[in-house]
């Protein structure tokens, strides 16, 4: 059972890295349904947390992209309502497990709650609160000296991408720098979807704050063209949807 659950988690991660978030969510849902009655507390909690993480990513792409997480809940097109449902689901997950769960699992669940809270604040227009929560999320998910990572988990990447997205409203240069660092790490770890996304967004933001610098602007335009070409010719799933979401928030 444990091997099957871990295989499902790996499969979900692979689909997510290919930009196929719907398939990533489907794998988690199927595993929860299949193993709920026989899995250990630790393994089942890992499945639920992965499912919540993917659902938050899907909601961020647009409320019409993700199915409502509770089958008994009515369909809705409101970001805030969907995030509220995800908060309730996370609360139910926490109450369903022992209070003395391992510290590592408790930290993971807290990071999921922070991610949901930050996205909810962003959706409601409270960008300052969202930024504070995003900073806390990055701190919570950072392992070892910051800035020296050579590999990041999907949860760590999502936390930093959220922070860069929110920083763009307050400090464009800081957002660009964070995206550049994230793109380099994703390239080293062969995460092509996120490498392309971060490279594209970095170039896009560079055009906004360095428009007076002709060389920087030309380099940014070339980077955008090259990244789009790579993404389209290799079929990187939800890449363009991510770009549209980042650009319009």
From TrEMBL:
Highest rank taxon of the organism: Eukaryota
Protein name: Anaphase-promoting complex subunit 5
Organism: Spumella elongata
């Amino acid at each position: 059972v444990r091997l099957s659950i871990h295989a499902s988690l790996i499969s979900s991660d692979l689909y997510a890295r290919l930009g196929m978030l719907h398939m990533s969510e489907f794998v988690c849902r199927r595993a929860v349904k299949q193993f709920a009655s026989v899995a250990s507390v630790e393994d089942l909690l890992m499945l639920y947390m992965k499912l919540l993480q993917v659902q938050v990513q899907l909601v961020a792409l647009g409320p019409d992209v993700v199915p409502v997480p509770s089958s008994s809940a009515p369909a809705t097109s409101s970001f805030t309502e969907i995030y509220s449902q995800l908060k309730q689901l996370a609360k139910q997950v926490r109450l369903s497990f022992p209070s003395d769960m391992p510290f590592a699992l408790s930290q993971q669940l807290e990071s999921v709650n922070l991610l949901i809270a930050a996205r909810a604040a962003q959706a409601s227009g409270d960008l300052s609160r969202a930024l504070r929560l995003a900073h806390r999320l990055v701190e919570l998910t950072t392992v070892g000296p910051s800035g020296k990572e050579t590999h990041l988990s999907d949860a760590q990447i999502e936390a930093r991408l959220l922070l860069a997205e929110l920083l763009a409203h307050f400090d464009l240069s800081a957002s660009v720098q964070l995206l550049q660092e994230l793109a380099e790490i994703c390239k080293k770890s062969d995460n092509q979807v996120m490498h392309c996304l971060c490279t594209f967004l970095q170039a896009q933001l560079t055009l906004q704050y360095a428009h007076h610098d002709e060389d920087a602007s030309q380099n940014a335009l070339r980077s955008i063209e090259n990244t789009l070409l790579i993404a389209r010719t290799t079929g990187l799933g939800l890449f363009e949807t991510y770009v549209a979401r980042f650009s319009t928030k």
